[in-house]
Amino acid sequence: MDHVRIELLPLGANLQVKRGTPLQDVLFAHGVEFPCGGRGLGKGCRIKLIAGSLPVTPEDKHKLTIRELEEGWRLACRAKADTDLRVELAQWESAILTDNSDFSFTPRQGMGVAVDLGTTTLVAQLVDLQTGHVLAVKAALNTQATHGADIMSRIEFAVSEKGQNVLQTLIRDQIGQLVAGLLRESGTVDKNLASVVIVGNTVMHHLFCGISVAPLSEYPFETPSPELQVSFADDIGWKLPGNPRVHFLPCLGGFVGSDILAGVLATKLHEAEKLVTLIDLGTNGELVVGTRDRMLCASTAAGPAFEGARISMGMRAATGAISEVLIEDGKLACRILGNGEARGICGSGLVDAVAVGLDLGFVKPSGRFTQGETLPLVNTVALNQWDIRELQLAKGAIAAGLEILLEEWGATQNDVETVYLAGAFGNYINQASAKRIGLLNFPPEKIVPSGNTALLGAKLALFDLEHHHGAYPEILSRITHFSLKEHPRFQDAYVEHMTFPAN
Fold first, then answer.
1. Residues facing 375 on adjacent strands
2. Does domain 111-267+455-468 correspond to CATH entry 3.30.420.480?
3. Distance between CA atoms of 193 and 207, rounded to whole angstroms?
4. Superfamily per CATH, domain 3-88
């Protein structure tokens, strides 16, 4: 037989694929993540074999314990469907952050689509441009994630494996399908679209627009910041009513993309009289400080740890993830999304776990454990020494970057009036835990979780881009991209902020 069947539990789904098909090619759509891009470098793609045959690979032996192998666990990224299979998956469920904010606008005719293209997730909203009402919403995991969970893995695949065209095709097709789905869901397939506005980080921008990411793969990690990219839907293979213009807003420099430009629009940072800060902790950490007179922006490599990547048992905020760790009756206690068995830990849980570990004396300010080689959480989920180090690197980069950026602006943290936290991680993080580990050293009253500012900014752009350039050119004229790595004191500040506060 040329085909085999794969039964997915507990989903109840049944697939028929060609014999020898890599499981990575078919399981991503059903919730299995491949954080390392399919190179067998982590445990994030584990599946449990119930029936059939999946031979143990060298990567399985290296990453999984003898007990896990005996129980049937395998790394999906190294497995092929050579026989009929029955496998158990985690019942992944992730609430991707959308936007329901009220905002002021000048009405125009027609409908528009705003898209937040993230490294991990993407979300699109169909908007009635006359009323500002959201007619439909679609969200999904970014299908490019089969080639790596974080930005640098995606760049590596694009450059070293000549995969840029693959990644471009994947994301263009996926967004085109999302937009078409919005029209079907809202019952407006016979009405013309006026425009589509997309925002995303620099890598997502380049991969969608067909601009080489090679300059971002090596020092100084800079790329010419292209102007607003505009094309017609037909030109990128989208058959949409009215053949609307597709706008991808410009990047701000380096790894600071148009999602941050949209965040400035959404928070009205460019109108602020007093000093404010925008912090976006996604798969990359991006920072903006400034007022209506001038702004500085920068990026720093921080996001992978906060989103669970590069953590031994890290995962997205989905069913089975430890999302919260607290102290109950003097002991460590965990909250698990879905109230089921713990399968891993997400970013908010990681920050909580280390904060609690510090308070209970399990973790030293240096990051070393006081006893044993792991910090057990619940069941088989634990943090190892490398996980703590990854968090130290991430939070140290953010804290040092913010300090240097404020210093360049001529201010200190005490001068900041408001701190806007953008993105899903910023929306759900425990602020007390973030302060305990030294990530955000601001009074709680100054911190404003701001949701999906990228999507809100994209919606704002829908209302004026067609007739003139909108607000963004003025913002570009007042914002300066700053390279943290070139600052003579950044490395020292980075090292200094890697340790945790003593209390």
1. 383
2. yes
3. 24
4. Beta-grasp domain (3.10.20.30)
Distance from C-alpha of 232 to C-alpha of 195, rounded to nearest angstrom: 9
Residue 256 DSSP one-character state: B
How far apart, in whole angstroms, are the C-alpha atoms of residue 478 and residue 252? 11
Query: Which amino acid, residue 262?
Result: A
Distance of alpha carbon 7 from alpha carbon 14, whole angstroms:
5
Looking up tokens 């037989």 gives 1
- In this predicted structure, what is the pLDDT of residue 342? 86
SS3 per residue for 148-207: CCCHHHHHHHHHHCCCHHHHHHHHHHHHHHHHHHHHHHHCCCCCCEEEEEEEECHHHHHH
Distance CA 143, CA 155 (A): 15
Q: What average pLDDT score do residues 6-10 get?
A: 78
Region 163-185: mean pLDDT is 95
- Please provide residue 300's backbone torsions phi and psi, each rounded to the nearest 5 degrees: -150, 145
**Cα–Cα dist 46/34, whole Å:** 9
| Angle, CA 411 vertex, CA 487 and CA 439 arms, to 5° | 70
480: enclosing H helix or E strand: strand 479-481
Q: How far is CA 494 from the centre of its chain?
A: 23
CA distances from 183 to 17, 107, 180, 230, 409 (A): 31, 20, 5, 21, 45
Domain range annotation of the chain:
3-88, 111-267+455-468
44 Cα distance to chain centroid: 16
What does the pLDDT average to over 281-310?
A: 83
Q: Report the share of the chain in percent with pLDDT over 70.
A: 91
**In contact, 321 and 337? CB cutoff 8 Å:** yes
How many CB atoms sit inside 10 A of residue 446's CB?
14
Both tokens of 314, joined, read 């890290």
Query: Residue 106: what are its φ and ψ, rounded to 5°?
Result: -100, 115
Residues β-bridged to residue 326: 333
